[in-house]
């Protein structure tokens, strides 16, 4: 059964992981999103009760 031979598939997997780790990962980690959640300040809204006319 040739699909159980790890010789060509291991090399392909190794090359793809090295490509991901060495070329793509630093580019993705250097990306800064425009709406960073770290810079947001959370404010609490003061709620006022609603005056219902039938109560």
UniProtKB/TrEMBL annotation:
GO terms for molecular function: proton transmembrane transporter activity. One of its GO terms (biological process) is proton motive force-driven ATP synthesis. One of its GO terms (cellular component) is mitochondrial membrane. The keyword Ion transport applies. It is found in: Mitochondrion membrane. Keywords: ATP synthesis, CF(0), Hydrogen ion transport, Ion transport, Membrane, Mitochondrion, Signal, Transmembrane, Transmembrane helix, Transport. It comes from the Eukaryota. Pfam families: ATP-synt_8. Residues 1-30 form the signal peptide. It is a single-pass membrane protein. Its main location: mitochondrion. Belongs to the ATPase protein 8 family. This is ATP synthase complex subunit 8.
């Amino acid at each position: 059964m040739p699909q159980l031979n790890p010789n060509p598939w291991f090399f392909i997997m190794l090359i793809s992981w090295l490509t991901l780790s060495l070329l793509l990962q630093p580019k993705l980690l250097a990306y800064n999103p425009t709406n960073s959640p770290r810079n947001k300040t959370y404010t609490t809204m003061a709620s006022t009760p609603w005056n219902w006319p039938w109560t």
